[in-house]
Each structure stands twice: as structure tokens, then as C-alpha cells.
Structure to design on (375 residues):
């Protein structure tokens, strides 16, 4: 079973310089390989194989002008090639757009070490290729084999490692899907979560306040003169705010998904595929912050469910979860977003808009999974 652990690290000056070199070289190799693949693709209608592009990199590193590429972990560079290769495969399969170049001023920087990293919990240090003894705040211990270590630097200048660990422990066998123990979940803007058991979890106040502060900081930023020192300072203020909200969101999503998976008696969770849900979202309401947060929530819920042997049932196509009565399946043509509750004209049930939606998600997901309709 694979698990990821993220730690803050505190590299000294010398280590920071070497990390910056890694960020730079990896970005260079990525862009170089992408340009190479692009021109090869235009000429031949296909991409270069992994081994062909690897041997071109080997040749490049022998070139005097590019000798600086040898200062960094060679496997991190190979990994950058692999990322270009994978991006092209996704592109060819129509899963993503054409791979894009990485800009120099891109705020987040990272590189990967596929091998030869070691974490020492007693000393509180992590050894990376070419970088021994980097101080780290190792909050959570792990057991198992390290697969990859990704080093990153945030827009506000903090360094982190994300350690992907393969533990000997197998994932528990998933429990049987039982309608009585299936909870439907509807993610929303007014309430963060609406559950088919009738409960609602609110968006916390601190996030609403943070959104206001972000808006204000963004406004100040866009008013500053381009390339001015003031603008650079405001960019940092904005990055710090973003980072704070991001961390608070992550904490909250960890807490909520832990509660659902570990403290709720449900053994299966029914959710809507967000890619489908977002297609029909009112654009005025679909704030990017919320979109990202929902995705994170579902991701966390999915992997925690796997750890604890619970099921995620996904409804992966559009259905009118809000406009259908969950009791008699009567369908209403229109239901403006301002209508928060309604009475079904067929069976007379009083329905809360969002709870009704989560109950429909539950029923639809169960019907898909079990091949029969369930109420
Ligand atoms: Zn009804």
C-alpha cells in the first residue's frame, strides 16, 4: 500500500543553493525535452521513445556548455524526461491538452528523487542524493520502503519534502456494499457537505473571512505599478494569504474525512464525479477555491476509505440530483438556485434541496453498484 508523508524541511544556505540548482536543471531538462518532442512530433507525427530521448540527454551532459547539468542528481533529470513522456501519453490519449513549458517565474518549484533517499527519525534529518543531513520536522513516523521523495519550495519560500512510502501492509479487503450503511454526500457552497442522513456540515467562518481578505489583497496587488518594489511585496503578501488558506483547508478536509471514515458507521460513501458536477455549475458560484477544495476532499475521502476497507461509489455521469424527488422520483423541470427547499407536487414530501440531492446521489450510486434500484 502506498502512502505519502509531507514534512517541512530546513535546508542550510549551502543546501538551499543546491536545491535551487535542482529546480533550475529539472525545469531546463523538462523544457528542452518538451521542445525536442514537439519538433519531432511535427516532423514525424509521433513522439520520441524514452530511450532515444534519454541517450540525447546523456550526449547533452557531455557537452562542455551544459556541464552544469552534472552538478545535480542525474535521476531527477531522468524523472523530468519521464514527466514529459507521460504528459505526451496523456495528450495522445486525449486526457489533457498539449503539454506546456514551465515558466521561470512559476511560483511553486519542485523536483523528484526516485531513489537513494533516507529518513532518520532519531536525528530529525533526511538524506537526499547530493544533499546529506537536511534538517526536517518529522511529525509523523512511517514504516516501509521509500519510493520517491519530492522536494518543493512554496511561493513564500518554505521548503518541503513529500515522501511516498510503500508499506508491507496490504490494504484491508473492502466491506460489502450495504444500502443501510451507505452515506450519500453532496458537496456544496452554502454548506460544505450535505449528507443523506440529513446532516449538514458548514463552511467554517475562517474560510469566509479569508476569502474576503484574499479579495482585498488581490485588488491592492492589481493596482500596483508593474515591476515596482511595492508590487513584489504585495505579491508576497498575497502568496502568504493563499498559503494560509490552503493549509487551513487541508487541515479541515483531513478532519472531516477522518470523521466520515473513522467515526461514521457508514461503510460506503456515494459521491458525484466532480468533473461532471462542474459542467453544470453556475459559473458565478463556482469559485475556483471551492472547486479545488472539493476535489481535495474527495481525494482524501477516497484514499482514507481504501486504508480502512470502505467503499467509494461514484456517480460518473450527469443526472438531475437536485431536481428529482428522492421519495417518488418525480422530476421537476426547473428549480432556481435560490430555492433552498420545495414540496414535491406528486407525493407532497417537503424536501431540503441539498439533502434531497445527497439522497439521490446515494440511491443512484447504489443502483449503479448493485445493478438494482434501492430506496
Ligand atoms: Zn415526490
Amino acid at each position: 500500500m502506498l502512502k505519502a508523508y509531507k514534512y517541512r524541511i530546513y535546508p542550510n544556505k549551502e543546501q538551499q543553493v543546491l536545491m535551487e540548482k535542482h529546480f533550475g536543471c529539472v525545469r531546463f531538462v523538462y523544457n528542452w525535452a518538451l521542445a525536442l518532442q514537439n519538433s519531432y512530433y511535427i516532423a514525424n507525427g509521433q513522439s520520441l521513445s524514452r530511450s532515444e530521448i534519454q541517450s540525447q540527454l546523456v550526449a547533452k551532459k557531455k557537452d562542455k556548455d551544459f556541464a552544469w547539468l552534472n552538478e545535480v542528481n542525474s535521476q531527477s533529470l531522468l524523472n523530468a524526461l519521464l514527466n514529459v513522456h507521460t504528459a505526451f501519453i496523456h495528450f495522445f490519449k486525449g486526457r489533457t491538452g498539449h503539454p506546456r513549458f514551465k515558466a521561470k517565474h512559476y511560483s511553486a518549484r519542485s523536483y523528484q528523487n526516485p531513489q537513494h533517499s533516507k529518513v532518520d527519525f532519531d536525528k530529525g534529518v533526511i538524506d537526499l542524493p547530493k544533499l546529506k543531513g537536511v534538517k526536517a520536522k518529522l511529525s509523523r513516523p512511517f514504516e516501509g520502503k521509500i519510493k520517491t521523495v519530492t522536494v518543493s519550495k512554496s511561493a513564500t519560500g518554505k521548503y518541503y519534502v513529500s515522501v511516498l512510502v510503500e508499506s508491507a501492509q496490504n490494504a484491508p479487503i473492502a466491506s460489502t456494499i450495504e444500502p443501510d450503511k451507505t452515506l450519500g454526500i453532496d458537496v456544496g457552497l452554502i454548506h460544505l457537505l450535505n449528507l443523506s442522513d440529513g446532516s449538514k456540515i458548514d463552511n467554517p467562518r475562517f474560510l469566509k473571512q479569508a476569502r474576503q481578505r484574499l479579495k482585498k489583497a488581490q485588488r491592492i496587488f492589481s493596482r500596483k505599478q508593474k515591476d515596482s518594489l511595492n508590487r513584489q511585496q504585495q505579491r508576497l503578501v498575497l502568496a502568504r494569504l493563499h498559503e494560509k488558506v490552503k493549509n487551513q483547508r487541508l487541515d479541515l478536509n483531513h478532519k472531516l474525512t477522518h470523521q466520515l471514515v473513522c467515526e461514521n458507521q457508514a461503510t460506503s460513501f456515494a459521491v458525484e464525479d466532480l468533473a461532471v458536477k462542474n459542467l453544470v455549475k453556475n459559473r458565478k458560484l463556482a469559485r475556483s477555491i471551492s472547486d479545488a477544495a472539493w476535489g481535495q476532499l474527495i481525494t482524501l475521502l477516497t484514499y482514507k476509505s481504501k486504508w480502512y476497507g470502505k467503499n467509494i461509489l461514484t456517480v460518473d455521469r450527469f443526472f438531475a440530483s437536485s431536481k428529482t424527488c428522492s421519495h417518488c422520483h418525480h422530476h421537476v423541470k426547473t428549480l432556481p438556485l435560490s430555492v433552498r427547499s420545495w414540496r414535491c407536487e406528486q407525493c407532497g414530501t417537503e424536501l431540503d434541496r441539498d439533502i434531497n440531492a445527497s439522497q439521490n446521489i446515494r440511491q443512484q450510486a447504489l443502483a449503479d453498484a448493485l445493478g438494482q434500484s434501492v430506496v
Remarks:
- The chain has two domains: 2-166, 179-207+240-370.
- Residues 142 and 165 are 8 Å apart (CA to CA).
- The first strand starts at residue 2 and ends at 10.
